[in-house]
C-alpha cells in the first residue's frame, strides 16, 4: 500500500466497523479516505458465504461462526440477521476510536461539489470538546470561524470530552416505515453546515449508519441490543444504543455531537419489511422514552460498565411490564458487559492478544 | 401606501419594534419587506432630538418623554441610554406578534445570492410548532423536505406552540467584549441552513438584535431589565430576557427556535466600551446561570405574569447576595408586570385605547 502524505488522522487509533451481508464494492468509492485505516467487517447471515473485500484494504472479518467461537455462550447477546451484529466489532476492536458505516452509504458532496471525507470530520468532532451544558447559538464554538457568543458563561467554555459523533445522510433520509410509506419520494437535499452538541438531559434518535465514538470513553454503552432473528423487533438497535449512551454520557459528563459529516445514503429499505420490524418498537418507544427521560444513575456509578449494569437493572424493573422482551434484553445487556470485559481485560487493551479473526491483512 | 400582492403574512397582527438614537436610514434596505407592517420606534437618549423615518412607513414613535408620560412612576422599569428600552415597544404594541431588530442590521443574502426576507422566516418559525422534548437530528421537522426521523416518538410529533424565534447574524458575530478583543477580525461567514428548537431544560444566550416572538404567549416575560444610565451593567438586557423567557417557556410548555433567518450585522460595537458595560455581567453570570438552571416554578403559575412574578421573588431571594443590583432588578420586574397589565388590561387587548404615541401614520 502506497504511503499517503500527510499521515491520516488517528491512523493507528481508529477501526472502521462495517456490518454486511454482501461484497464490499462500496469501499471502492471510499478508498481515498478509508484505505489507510483498519477495517473490522462483521458478516451477518450465512457464514458459509464469502464476502469479497476490494484489494488493498487492511481488514479482519468475523462471521457468525467466529462470533460463536470467540464468545461461546455469551454470543447470545450478539444479534443475528440484523445489522445490530455490528457491535461485536466494537467489542473486538483494540483501538481508541471506532467509526461505523453501512454498506449502502457512499461519499457525499458538499454544496461546492467537493467530496466529503466523512471520517476526517468525525475525527475532528471527536477530538474537540462538546458543550452539553449551555446552547451556543453559533453551533460548534470550536470550529474555525466560530466561537462562543455573548452571554455564554466563561466557566463552561472548556466544554466536555466528546464521546460520540453522529453524522447525517443526504439523499435517503433515515425515516421510519410509516413516514417512508407516506413520503416515498422525499429526499434530503439540505446540507446544513453545522455540528452541534445535544444538550444534557435531551434524548435524540441515534442512527448507526454513519457514527463514530471514543471506545475508551463510551464503548461498553454502544450495545445494539437484541434484534433480528428470533427477536420481536428490528431497526431499534441504534436507537437503543443511543438512548443508553445518552443517559450515560449525561451522567459521566461526556458530550455527544450531531450534524456534519454527511454521507450519501443510496437506497431506501423496503417500508413494508421495515414496518414489520418496527411496529412493536413504535408502540414500545412511547414508554421507553419516558423511561430514559427519568433515568437517574447513582453517583457511585463512575465507569461506563457500572452505569450500564445499573441501567440494565432499571430496564428489567421498569420495562419488563411493557413486554417480556425487556427482561431478555436486560439480561443480554449484562452478558454484553461480561463479554466486553472478557475481551477488554484492562482499560488500555492495546497489548491484549487479538481475537483471532477469520482473515488477515489483505 | 400601495397594496402588495400577495398580502404579506400577518400584516395586521405584527409590529416591528426598533430602538434607536439615529435616523432610520437602514429602513431603506428593508423597505420591500417591512413597509407593509406597522413600526414601533423607541427613541433612546435625548428626547428633543428628531429621528427621521424614511417616507412611506407606517409608524408610531416614543421618546423618553412619552415613556414617562404614559407610564408615570412605573417608567422607572424602562432602561434609558440602552437598547433595553426597546421592551417598552413590546408593552405598547397591540398586536399578537412582535419582531425586533437593531438599526445596524441589514438584509443578508443566502448562499445563492438571494436577499433574505428575515421577517417572513421569523413568521414561518412562529407559525409552526417547536420540538422541545426530543431532539430531531434533521432539525426542524416541519420545514419543507424534512420530517421526524426514525426513532422520534409519534406522541411528540405534534410539537409545542412556538413562542420565540431567535434569528442569527452574518458578518459581525454577537461576541462579548473579551472575544471581540481577542478576535477583532473574526466574521461570521457560515450560513447554516437550519432552524431548531432549543431543548427543554437548556438555556441559551438570546440576542435581541433579530428576534421575534408571540406577545400573547410570552410577551410579559420579554422584559429587558435595568441597563444603561444609572445601572451597573449593560449588554445583558437580551440575555436576561432570554433566561427568564426560557425557564417560563419550559414551564408553560412553549417552544423557542433558533437559527434562520440571518440578518447582516454591519458594525462591531467598541470592545472597550463593551467591556466596561459587560464586566460585572461576565462575573455575575457565573452565578446567574446556575440560578436559572435550577429555577422551579410552582404548578400554580399558569400565566406568564404569574411565572414572572414568582421568578422576581426567586431573583430577589437568591441573587441579591450576588449584588444589591438584583434587589432593584427584582423590584423592576414587578413594576414591569404592573405596567404591562395596565397597558394590556385583557389578554386580547386589540380593542384597548392606543397609548397615544408622539407621531402617527407617515
Automatic annotation (TrEMBL), chains A, B:
<dbReference type="InterPro" id="IPR029044">
    <property type="entry name" value="Nucleotide-diphossugar_trans"/>
</dbReference>
<dbReference type="GO" id="GO:0005794">
    <property type="term" value="C:Golgi apparatus"/>
</dbReference>
<feature type="glycosylation site" description="N-linked (Glc...) arginine">
    <location>
        <position position="150"/>
    </location>
</feature>
<protein>
    <recommendedName>
        <fullName>UDP-arabinopyranose mutase</fullName>
        <ecNumber>5.4.99.30</ecNumber>
    </recommendedName>
</protein>
<dbReference type="InterPro" id="IPR037595">
    <property type="entry name" value="RGP_fam"/>
</dbReference>
<dbReference type="GO" id="GO:0071555">
    <property type="term" value="P:cell wall organization"/>
</dbReference>
<keyword id="KW-0413">Isomerase</keyword>
<dbReference type="GO" id="GO:0052691">
    <property type="term" value="F:UDP-arabinopyranose mutase activity"/>
</dbReference>
<comment type="similarity">
    <text>Belongs to the RGP family.</text>
</comment>
<keyword id="KW-0325">Glycoprotein</keyword>
<keyword id="KW-0333">Golgi apparatus</keyword>
<dbReference type="Pfam" id="PF03214">
    <property type="entry name" value="RGP"/>
</dbReference>
<comment type="function">
    <text>Probable UDP-L-arabinose mutase involved in the biosynthesis of cell wall non-cellulosic polysaccharides.</text>
</comment>
<dbReference type="GO" id="GO:0071669">
    <property type="term" value="P:plant-type cell wall organization or biogenesis"/>
</dbReference>
<dbReference type="GO" id="GO:0033356">
    <property type="term" value="P:UDP-L-arabinose metabolic process"/>
</dbReference>
<dbReference type="GO" id="GO:0005829">
    <property type="term" value="C:cytosol"/>
</dbReference>
<feature type="site" description="Required for activity">
    <location>
        <position position="157"/>
    </location>
</feature>
<dbReference type="InterPro" id="IPR004901">
    <property type="entry name" value="RGP"/>
</dbReference>
<feature type="site" description="Required for activity">
    <location>
        <position position="150"/>
    </location>
</feature>
<keyword id="KW-0961">Cell wall biogenesis/degradation</keyword>
Amino acid at each position: 500500500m502506497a504511503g499517503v502524505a500527510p499521515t491520516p488522522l488517528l491512523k493507528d487509533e481508529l477501526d472502521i466497523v462495517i456490518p454486511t451481508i454482501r461484497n464490499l464494492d462500496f469501499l471502492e468509492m471510499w478508498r481515498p479516505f478509508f484505505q489507510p485505516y483498519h477495517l473490522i467487517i462483521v458478516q451477518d447471515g450465512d457464514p458459509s458465504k464469502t464476502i469479497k473485500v476490494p484489494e488493498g484494504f487492511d481488514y479482519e472479518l468475523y462471521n457468525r461462526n467466529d462470533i460463536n467461537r470467540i464468545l461461546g455462550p455469551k454470543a447470545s447477546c450478539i444479534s443475528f440477521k440484523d445489522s445490530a451484529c455490528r457491535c461485536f466489532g466494537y467489542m473486538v476492536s483494540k483501538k481508541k476510536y471506532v467509526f461505523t458505516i453501512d454498506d449502502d452509504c457512499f461519499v457525499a458532496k458538499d454544496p461546492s461539489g467537493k467530496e466529503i471525507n466523512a471520517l476526517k470530520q468525525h475525527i475532528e468532532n471527536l477530538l474537540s470538546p462538546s458543550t452539553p451544558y449551555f446552547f451556543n447559538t453559533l453551533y460548534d464554538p470550536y470550529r474555525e470561524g466560530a466561537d462562543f457568543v455573548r452571554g455564554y458563561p466563561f466557566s463552561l467554555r472548556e466544554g466536555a470530552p466528546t464521546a460520540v459523533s453522529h453524522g447525517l445522510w443526504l439523499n435517503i433520509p433515515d425515516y421510519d416505515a410509516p413516514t417512508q410509506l407516506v413520503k416515498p419520494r422525499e429526499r434530503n437535499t439540505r446540507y446544513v453546515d453545522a455540528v452541534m452538541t445535544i444538550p444534557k438531559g435531551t434524548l435524540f434518535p441515534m442512527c448507526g449508519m454513519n457514527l463514530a465514538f471514543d471506545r475508551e470513553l463510551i464503548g461498553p454503552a454502544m450495545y445494539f441490543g437484541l434484534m433480528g432473528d428470533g427477536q420481536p423487533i428490528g431497526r431499534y438497535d441504534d436507537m437503543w444504543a443511543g438512548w443508553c449512551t445518552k443517559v450515560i454520557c449525561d451522567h459521566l459528563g461526556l458530550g455527544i455531537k450531531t450534524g456534519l459529516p454527511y454521507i450519501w445514503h443510496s437506497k431506501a429499505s423496503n417500508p413494508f419489511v421495515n414496518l414489520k420490524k418496527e411496529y412493536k418498537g413504535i408502540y414500545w418507544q412511547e414508554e421507553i422514552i419516558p423511561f430514559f427521560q427519568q433515568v437517574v444513575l447513582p453517583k457511585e456509578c463512575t465507569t461506563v460498565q457500572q452505569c450500564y449494569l445499573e441501567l440494565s437493572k432499571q430496564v428489567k424493573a421498569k420495562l419488563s411490564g411493557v413486554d417480556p422482551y425487556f427482561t431478555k434484553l436486560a439480561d443480554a445487556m449484562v452478558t454484553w458487559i461480561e463479554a466486553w470485559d472478557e475481551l477488554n481485560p484492562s482499560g488500555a487493551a492495546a497489548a491484549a492478544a487479538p481475537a483471532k479473526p477469520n482473515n488477515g491483512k489483505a
